[in-house]
Specification:
Layout (H helix, E strand, L loop, with lengths): L1 H32 L3 H27 L4 H13 L5
């Protein structure tokens, strides 16, 4: 029980860390090139977001002994539930 809770918490923390890292990468890409905002948005939507979900799901699934799919879904839920303003 405690192992599953810790795995989900690890997945949530890792997902937030990956979100911050992808934001930093986009910041570094945008400075020298001056990409437009729609182009950066497409980069996030079609490259970074799926990559984050795949990595989190794989890591949590590898750590979980049982109910790997459920734990991976719970770990990605805070990332997927972000409401854009």
């Amino acid at each position: 029980m405690w192992r599953q809770i810790l795995i989900v918490l690890f997945g949530v923390v890792l997902s937030y860390f990956m979100i911050v890292t992808s934001g930093y990468i986009i910041y570094r890409i945008d400075l020298p090139t001056g990409w437009s905002e729609p182009r950066l948005g497409a980069l996030v939507r079609y490259l970074f977001d799926p990559l984050i979900v795949i990595v989190i799901g794989s890591i949590v699934g590898a750590l979980a002994k049982k109910q790997a799919g459920l734990l991976a879904a719970l770990s990605v839920l805070p990332f997927a539930a972000v409401i854009p303003l």
